[in-house]
Amino acid sequence: MASEITTSEYIKHHLQNLTFGQKQVETEPGVWAPTGEWGFAMSSGEAANMGFWSINVDTMFMSILLGALMMWFFRSVAKKVSAGIPTASQNFAEMIIDFIDDTVRGSFSGGKNNLVAPLALTIFVWVFLMNLMDLIPVDIIPQIVMQSAGAIFGVDPHHVYFKIVPTTDPNATLGMAIFVFLLMLYYSFKIKGTGGFIGELTLQPFGKWALPINTVLETVTLLSKPFSLGLRLFGNMYAGEMVFILIATMYGAGLVMGSFAGLLQVGWAIFHILIITLQAFIFMVLTTVYLDMAHQEHH
Amino acid sequence: MNINATIIGQIIAFAVFVAFCMKYVWPPIMQALEERKKKIADGLAAAERGRHEQELAEKRAQQVIHEAKEQASEIVSQAQKRGNEIVDESKNNARVEGERILNSAKAEIEQEANRARDELKSQVGGIALAGASKILGREIDEKAHTDLLDELVSRI
């Protein structure tokens, strides 16, 4: 933590994504106007005013990097997989896959479906890896990015942002949740048919005479699923990240507080191992359950 | 914390990863797992079968040993019986042979005695005739009295 910035600035800096979009200028306090150029936002205000057509480069970069890493590992195992004595990496992959397969078998009863199990595997491992970035001490990678960006592009390091935990960005978690929601809709229409699905949304739980109430209730229920799915993961990881950042602010407050912060950080990190695994698992199980519900016909 | 186009990027990235996983990762590994499961099941079944066969073989071996023992004891008892028989038979043979030898010896002795007696008779006849001829001189006709003498001899 540099001495010339305040604690609040430090925290804000850590919570800001590296956003690419249409450059904005603050013409007067609180009022932003586009300059017509494209580039990285240099402040959180500018990022906030870039509108929908901007992109969080750090989130995309980290999530795709981790996803590619995961797929590379599993693909390398799948290429030379054997039914005989497994190698160490195959053993590891099999352990995960067996676990996922068991869980999916336990909560998905929609018959033969080639999508759900691979989907659950992707979710579990990918979300776990993205969450795992939370355990890297909060300053290491942002500082590396900031200093190298400063050295290479000559920009002020204080205006370079980098969040390495994609799941602390609601875009990432809601994006995944929306994809799951699309799958839910697809299977609902496919299994129950358009009439069946609409009937499920309008004729329950109070029968056909309370159609408007049913529609409101069921639509809210339906929409709350992806929303809660995405926000649960985001909230947990954001809060965890926040605690790490707050602990990190104590390092600047002398030797005693610094040592205490070190202890706290280790403790929270150990506890966080549980949280990141659990959240990945919950996301996976809920996805499976939602897809299972999309396969169930109500009568 | 702004909702922006990242959300679309994430949906696409997620969909690509899921599709990749579904096509290139899950099926081969799952297939290997299934194959191994089958292999293990087969192995266990084979082991079970082997154990069963071993049990049968042991039972059979026990039976064979039992039979062999029975046969052996039978052979031994037969041999003993045969031995006794042979001993008895030889005893009989010996007795029979002894009797035969004894009889033949007796017969021979009798024969010898008879012959000696016959010889003696004939000689006694001759001696008596010679003695009588000496005593009577020429008065006695040798030919006329031979029958008389022979009768005399046979009475002896």
Please explain how this structure is put together:
The complex is a heterodimer of chains A (299) and B (156). Chain A has 299 residues and is mostly helical. Chain A has one domain (59-295). Chain A has helices spanning 7-14, 44-48, 57-79, 88-107, 116-132, 140-153, 170-202, 211-249, 254-295, and strands at residues 19-28, 31-40, 55-56. In chain A, strands 2-1-3 form a three-stranded antiparallel β-sheet. In chain A, strand 1 (19-28) and strand 2 (31-40) form a beta hairpin. In chain A, helix 1 packs across helix 8, helix 7 runs antiparallel to helix 8 (211-249) and helix 8 runs antiparallel to helix 9 (254-295). The longest helix of chain A is centred in the last third of the chain and has 42 residues, at 254-295. The model of chain A has no long low-confidence stretch (mean pLDDT 88). In chain B, 93% of the residues lie in helices and 0% in strands. Chain B has helices at 6-136, 142-155. Chains A and B meet through strand 3, helix 3, helix 4, helix 5 and helix 7 of A and helix 1 of B.
